[in-house]
Amino acid sequence: MATPTSGRITLPKGPKEALELAAKIYQKHQADGATSELKQLVDLDWNTVGPTIVKGQTYHTEAERLKGLMEEQYRLRDAVVSPIITANSDTASYLKGKYKKTPKALTAWGFGVDDTPQAKKPK
Q: Is the distance from CB of 17 to CB of 60 less than 8 angstroms?
């Protein structure tokens, strides 16, 4: 005969799921009214926590909307930045060839020029 387990409670890890669970708990707490078992909690008052759930869900929804906008902006930025990075590199190569003997001249175009001797690689 199998021994029954004490039962493991799984709590949600993400904010969306935590808010959904809290909403279910609060709904049951309100439905039970004066007889709610959760009134026995000493350091927690669901009548205080409960009304904040909708606000949290609203904040989460807005954060997700903004996250989508942010990702779209990054995609647009990356499409523009890629040819710019190539232009920077090509310009540096051209100017480095033109000013081979005076590489510090590239600073006039905004390039950083490090003319310290390069450290030798360890063997």
A: no
